Amino acid sequence: MDEKQKKKLMWQLPFLMLLIVGTVLIISHQQSTPYRQANDFVFGTTYKIVYQCDSDLTASIRQELMRVDYSLSPFNKESVITAVNQNREVMLDPYFVEVFNKAMEISRETKGAFDITVAPLVNAWGFGFKHEQMPTKRQVDSLRQIIGYQKVALKNGKVEKQDPRMMLDCSAIAKGFGVDAVARLLRDRGVQNFMVEIGGEVVTCGVNAQRLPWRVGVVKPSEDSLSTGHELQTILNVTDKAMATSGNYRNFYYKNGRRYAHTIDPKTGYPVQHSLLSATVLAASCSVADAYATSFMVMGLDNARQLLEHHPELMAYLIYDDGKGDIAVWFSPSLRHKIEE
């Protein structure tokens, strides 16, 4: 080594040492920073948020969820969506506008299988925020006249309806959006490792407290309305992904010997009747995963698979009845490496 190379090396050594020391300090700080939990009740369900942070963010998380509730909850009498449904003057907040626009986009992509104007039909069948008797065919046909995402639009900061009786129900996307909102908050606070879960809808980032990837189970469908079984069909590695599941195997009722599922087809006006039992979707955001999971439950197995061919950014795990009384599974080929046997 000549003198010139020695001098160059001498200049580089301090920077190299500084880089090594800095890396060690960062790793040491990450390992010593505690993982915290926030648990409570929101949107008619429970939530669990695990995050690694020096400070307690429980109050901020709760405040963020209340913002989403104030915007999108039809159960909240003071919410923006309640005012829209009652045709009252209201200032649309950014959350409402974001969810409305995303819902319209997914409605177009699914050719109306996803439709936030379906609220009157959901309520009529006894699954919404109003509880009425089972509708007659005449009532269903009448309600279908005020259903259709093409009949509402955002113009000049207001929701314009073709018929004032139209009502919006964002429950099939709002819970996922709530997960996204909390995940956004955590990222803004510099949190790199977290899991946000609200009623089974999930967003993860980084690693868990054991420095391992986040793993989430997919529940095996069963007519266990009390949710006491929780037998898992499979476990998925969902690190740095959003995941949402929709299924008809828990929210249903029997009347006159017939089973009625909570998923309403906006086109027919009736609860869906097909073999698909559960749809789990992985996507970049939980609101998108949530909406497509619901869409697939409306569309059924074959149509869901066809749509997935045109959306490689989505991954799905579909559980269905094989027609012989047994449970069968289909999943996106790109999901294979995330399934833990």
Description:
This protein has 341 residues and is α+β, with helices and mostly antiparallel strands. The protein folds into two domains: 36-161, ApbE-like domains (T-fold), CATH 3.10.520; 213-340, ApbE-like domains (T-fold), CATH 3.10.520. It has helices spanning 3-32, 58-72, 80-85, 94-109, 119-124, 137-144, 171-188, 286-299, 301-309, and strands spanning 35-42, 45-52, 152-155, 158-161, 194-198, 201-205, 215-219, 232-237, 242-247, 252-255, 258-261, 276-283, 315-321, 327-331, 339-340. The strands form four sheets. An eight-stranded antiparallel β-sheet has the order 1-2-5-6-9-12-13-14. The chain has a three-stranded antiparallel β-sheet with strand order 7-8-15, with no helix packed on it. β5 and β6 (201-205) form a beta hairpin. It is globular and about 85 Å long. It starts with a helix and ends with a strand. Mean pLDDT is 87; it is low at 16-29 and 251-260.
